[in-house]
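OP here, attaching both records as promised.
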Amino acid sequence: MKCKDLHDQMVAAGVEPNAQIFCTLMLGYANAGETALMEEWFGKMQAAGIMANQVTYNILLKGHAKKGDTSRCQYWYDQMMEAGIQPTLKTFNNLLDGYATAGDTALMEDWFGRLPAKGDGADQLVSYNILLKGFAKQGNIDRCQHWYDRMLEAGVRPDATTYNTLLDGCATAGNAAMMEEWFSRMQDAKVKVDAVTYGTLMKDCAKKGDTSRCEHWYDQMLEAGVRPEVQNFNILLDGCTTAGDTALTEEWFGRMQASGVAPNEVAYTTLLKGHARTGNTARCQHWYDQMLTAGVQPNVHTFSTLLD
């Protein structure tokens, strides 16, 4: 890891790392999901006689929250309290995110009730968006509506993440009508739509193999001046594959390339999946070769698709 190399060079040069250096290293491992190494560097920080602060503990919580490891989140929160360090709204947001990721919405709501009364407006927005994410993952659109209403009552203004999360909840629930209603409310609120917004709208159609509706949202995206990203095309490809239309899958793959978006391993694997389902081994071989020629590395899903 480059951060570690820099640390080693500093030590070799006789420069003692400070709290900021240790926190940067810990954050790097937290973002990479390497929580064991994150905690190891926390131990080195303590061994160096550097006191931990709010930032340090928030990084520890963030790392475990990303993985939904609520037991370690609770452990480090307790350690923070024992050290006499006052938790911030960011601290609680990390805890909320851990429970949302773990799918434990009951404890997520319990921790929301412990949030400090005062906090930065941006952090309050994050708190509500995490609550919505937790219920959206379960397709619980009634509870999403509840927290959206509480959000407005608290004077917190929804942003694109708020509405995209609500759309995702409707997509998970398979409620296309409600999803389109939330999209209209997003537009009425003058919140800027983005590639994630349209990707979510297309995702619901793709799950059902409704390729005409997928194309409708793709056209709407272009009309809105939103540039499609690789994830948008991957969703379109998946919709065609679900519909069993390999010719249309290849057509969209060509449009993806023509638009200047480089296909990734997901795009190629989706192409392979479509042909594998029809037993067309020649086209599977063709697209596998094209994948290698493009310098795209096959992953475990690619090989599983070919073996199936």
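Record two, same layout:
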Amino acid sequence: MSNLLVYRTLLIKFAFSSLLIFLHFLYALYSWLVDQTIFKQPDPWQNRSINGYKKYRLKKLPNHLVVSVCQEEVFYEYLAKLLAWALFLEVPVVSFYHNENGISPEELFFAFRDQYSSLLTKVNWGLEFNDNIKFESKKCINGYKWEPRIEVNILTSKHSKLQLVNALRTVCSTEEEFSDTLVELAINKTFPMVEPDLVVICGKSCTTFGLLPWHTRVTEFLTLKTHYNVTFLKFYKLLEQYSRNEQRFGK
């Protein structure tokens, strides 16, 4: 009797382990198929119906979204997609961050132009985009009215470290009494930008790599495994998660 009980116990354990392995295999297969673009959703800009807009409306959006790609190789095709999708969801400011100057403004612009030339009228090219890029953008939209709905910036470590250095120089040169307000005003003067509400970190570890330490006091950080082959659904789910979360601002 005892041998039969042991046998049944081992059989149940084996069946349960086999089921877990099978489920893990199915999930791995599904993830692989998604990465191979078999189940990918179409780009929302390809189906701009009224119902499509309503389907992806969110109650809360970040005023400033930062995408950090410090941990992986930069793929401009997918950065351009993230920019276009942020525009679709009506995020007003998007910045791409790499702590070692790893993002080329020119390559990002041309990747966006090649995929979304019709959207150039809606983009304001901000920090690190030189006059040549802005001239090229205006040349591409010749005959159309420029009505920017999104600002895009490229951030590097200099916007973190150098910003603080310049702000401290300003504070030290003033005759006003030292205070937190004085420092904050100096920082805003040297680097006038909306504080990020959301930072999406692409990679395995959740680390800031020195991203805007003064501006990210109450910023929410979410992770994305990789920006390579990213789908609109994955990007939307991140913003949906941000929309559901209640920011307590340190309370």
